[in-house]
Amino acid sequence: MTEVPNIPNPEGTIEVDLKYNLISTLMTDDFKDLNKCTDLDLDNNRISTIETGAFHGLNSLRKLMLCYNKFTELNHGMFQGLQSLELLILTGNKISHISDDTFSEMPKLYLLAVSNNFLQILNPTMFTALPVLEYLFCYTNKITRIVGGTFLNLTNLKDLNLRHNKLTTIRPAMFEGLISLKMLKLDSNKISAIEPYSFRCLPQPIILSLCFMRSGDDRNRLVCNTSICWLKRQENVGSISWGKHKNSAYKPCYTGGMTWDGLWCPQGALKFQIHCLNKQASRKVVQLYTICTLIVLVFLRLLVLLAVKVGWMLQVVLS
To answer: Is the pLDDT reported for residue 205 higher than 80?
Structure first.
């Protein structure tokens, strides 16, 4: 099949599955009568062109699958008519360019996947008018640069996946605006430097995922020295925990004479999580810990008194 066929009973169709065909172009009004369709699967075709108006009529569409096609760029107007769309999956194409405001006509979109493509730079005009977007997957591209303010309008984003790219330096303005973020994944880049306070703009609590390997590997190569000790001093960083890869070995991290309990440097792979807590949250945690400790101590005290009383009563009875 090389083009979109006529769908029988379009008014009553809820799902359309056209994957694994030879469709190369989506033409204007190809889906004009599918006003009740909620799922459209066009994976594994040869689509490289979407004409303006191709999705007109898909007023109820919520999920659009366009994985493993032949897209090289995404242009403004490609997704007109998808005001109800919630999931857009573009994994496994050859996309190297996203034009300004390409996704601006999808106000309900909450998951966008452009992973396994050829993107090199992320800039502020790519992700405009996405007020409810919660998941953005950009892993396995060739991203070397994120322009400051790129995510400024993604105030509802919770999960940002940038694994398997070519980032070398993390800078403070990169993640500005991500006030709802809970997970930031930067594993398997080429990160060798994290500038001071790069994560100060992020909310709390947040989990930052990184994976470090020895020099010569294709993963992050951050050096454990005084250049990263600012993380411990940063006012909105509450704790840092390091998780050990099952095949890695530990050795104490060189910190230039500074003491940092729990900081380790990997000989093999290490993944760590940073839980950023602001001062107010940290005080609440301390208060809660204190209250719980007092409750436990009181409970133990009562158990001791009860045990003494029971022992005295048994002694009276036996005598």
So the answer is: no
Size of the chain, expressed as the number of residues it contains: 319
Strand partners, 39: 15, 63
Give the per-residue pLDDT at 262.
Answer: 34
> Can you give the C-alpha Rg of the chain in angstroms?
27
Residue (of 206, 216, 215, 156) closest to 186 by Cα position: 206
For position 242, what pLDDT does the model report? 38
CA distance 189 to 143: 9
Lowest mean pLDDT among 42-56, 111-125, 247-261, 287-301: 247-261
Q: What angle do CA 13, 17, 20 make, to 5 degrees?
A: 160
DSSP string of the chain, one letter each residue: --SPPPPSSGGG--EEE--SS---EEPTTTTTT-TT--EEE--SS---EE-TTTTTT-TT--EEE--SS---EE-TTTTTT-TT--EEE-TTS---EE-TTTTTT-TT--EEE--SS---EE-TTSS-S-TT--EEE--SS---EE-TTTTTT-TT--EEE--SS---EE-GGGGTT-TT--EEE-TTS---EE-TTTTTTS-SS-EEEEEE--BTBSSB----SGGGTHHHH-TT--EEEEEE-TT--EEEPP-TT---TT-EEESS-EEEEEE---HHHHHHHHHHHHHHHHHHHHHHHHHHHHHHHHHHHHHHHH-
* 172 has a pLDDT exceeding 60: yes
For residue 316, give Cα distances in angstroms to 263, 306, 309, 313, 319: 57, 15, 11, 5, 5
| φ, ψ at 266 (rounded to 5°) | -90, 145
